[in-house]
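REQUEST ID: PR-0412
SUBMITTED BY: lab tech R.K.
PRIORITY: routine
TASK: structure prediction, single protein chain
INPUT:
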Amino acid sequence: LTGEKMKTDQINNIAILGAGKIGQAIAKGMKLSGKFSSSQITLTRKNITMLGHMQKDGFNVTNDNLAAITSSQLIIISVGPQDIVSLLNEIKAKIHHHKHMVVSTVAGVTIESFQNVLGMDVPIIRSIPNTAVEICESMTCIAGRDDHFESINTTKSIFDSLGRTHILKEELIGPATALCGSGLAFFLRAIRAASHGGIEIGFHAEDAILLAAQTARGAASLTIRSEMHPESEIDKVTTPKGITISGLNEMEHQGFSSAIIRAIVRASDKVGNIF
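STATUS: complete
OUTPUT:
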């Protein structure tokens, strides 16, 4: 068994190193998907008291990264960018290219940088999920070296059960972080704004949030299922001198589209490569 030829059904145990919000969300999504059980997943964190609730849910928890990777085939690294060098130096002696596959969710750290520190040709795959991975509704972007295509496909297979996936070139991982990672927050803010509008026109807060969120969900589902441009669905609900077009025009007068575009571009500019 080599890392490059590792298949999903050959992954018996998973180590998630640096199990903060996204690491925990991935673990919960894996369990929810039914593809892995909580007993197959080990979470690490310096302060394991912050993982007590995960341990109660059946996940293995430890502050020993080396112990976690020894019994695992898939290593998911989710530490903060500032901790990545020290972590890689800590674990590199225990990483074996014939046994392990490494998936990174760390923003701004390139595959080349990983391999420069690890000093070996272990498959490194960059994966950018968002926190909706917890409920298997993530949009996850994946990138890897061309010669590690089997590991890319294995990673895709895993994250396919946690939402939707898209394979792209590594230079687009930063922009994907802005559009899909940070983008989740942007869409949530739009839902909040819509619910505030609902409150102003007479709905109680909890009702307004439900109505806005389900409407947003319907809009997203229509776009994905139809595989059409969003404007094609907008055209179906706009009529001459109608209610919808008056609201859409007011949004544009107030700079709605420009604000969303600028938010995504600004977030993308912020990502960069740390090293």
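NOTES: The radius of gyration is 21 Å.
REVIEWED BY: pending
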